[in-house]
């Protein structure tokens, strides 16, 4: 459809002069700290659940130019119209997967994603905190303790926001304290550095890296995806029900 309108695909974004169509992220495309967990392929032979995951390979993960592909794209103007009145209008988003279960290996799964359109199954957490404080919040959401508390609260398969509001989230000023095991830095810096190494593995997350002044092992805000991350995520996905 977009190509018929004269748009060209650059990465996973359609562009035409100054106009853009942004990918529509679904929750199934994301895993913890990983905005490139899977693309979505349409199987028209299925009566239901026509959108099926095509999981990202290790080689694809290690290519910072690789971007996952959605089923749909949304005019950037429509996305901007919705975001105009929202706090934390940044070049990246953070959110969590709405569909989950207390019987999954992980109940709370959160990640950064590039600025894009999203479905209501990936709930955005828009805020005015600094980029590094957002990274600390992401670490909090994906921590084992937070996940344990989440599975005690949820009774079905939907992680409603009113449940998330009851969970043990640390206030932002917590991270201003000195790190006890690395006294030369604050908790904010120590935690955020590790979150950024997990999250900034592709070109489309460079805005986040730049906001944090994070160079990454590869330079220019890129941290190469490691094989350990791939093994860890594969093990988690094999035992976790997703959207």
Q: Radius of gyration from the CA trace? A: 18 Å
Largest β sheet strand count, sense and barrel closure = 5 strands, mixed
Q: How many strand segments?
A: 12
Order of helices and strands: EEEEEHEHEEEEHHHEEHHH
Poorly predicted ranges (pLDDT <50, ≥5 residues)?
237-243
What does this structure look like?
Helix 3 crosses helix 6. With 243 residues, this protein is an alpha+beta fold. It has helices at 58-61, 76-83, 131-141, 144-153, 161-164, 187-199, 206-211, 227-238, and strands spanning 8-10, 13-16, 19-25, 38-42, 51-55, 73-75, 92-97, 110-114, 117-118, 122-124, 178-179, 182-186. It contains eight helices and twelve strands. Strand 2 and strand 3 form a beta hairpin. The strands form four sheets. Strands 1, 2, 3, 6 and 9 form a five-stranded mixed sheet that branches. A three-stranded antiparallel sheet has the order 8-7-10, with helices on one face. Strands 4-5 form a two-stranded antiparallel ribbon.
């Amino acid at each position: 459809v977009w190509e018929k309108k004269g748009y060209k695909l650059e990465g996973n974004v359609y562009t035409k002069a100054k106009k853009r169509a942004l990918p529509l992220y679904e929750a199934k495309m994301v895993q913890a700290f990983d905005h490139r967990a899977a693309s979505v392929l349409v199987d028209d032979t299925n009566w239901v659940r026509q959108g099926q995951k095509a999981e990202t390979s290790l080689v694809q993960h290690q290519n910072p130019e690789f971007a996952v592909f959605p089923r749909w794209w949304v005019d950037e103007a429509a996305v901007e119209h919705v975001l105009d009145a929202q706090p934390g209008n940044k070049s990246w988003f953070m959110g969590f997967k709405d569909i989950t279960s207390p019987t999954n290996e992980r109940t709370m799964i959160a990640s950064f994603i590039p600025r894009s359109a999203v479905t209501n199954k990936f709930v955005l957490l828009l805020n005015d905190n600094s980029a590094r404080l957002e990274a600390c919040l992401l670490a909090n959401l994906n921590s084992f303790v937070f996940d344990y508390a989440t599975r005690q609260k949820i009774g079905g398969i939907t992680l409603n926001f009113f449940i998330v509001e009851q969970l043990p989230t640390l206030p932002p000023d917590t991270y201003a304290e000195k790190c006890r095991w690395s006294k030369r830095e604050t908790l904010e810096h120590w935690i955020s550095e590790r979150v950024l190494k997990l999250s900034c593995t592709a070109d489309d997350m460079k805005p986040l890296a730049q906001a944090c002044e994070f160079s990454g092992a590869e330079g220019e805000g890129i941290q190469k995806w490691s094989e350990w991350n791939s093994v860890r995520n594969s093990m988690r996905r094999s035992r976790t029900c997703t959207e």
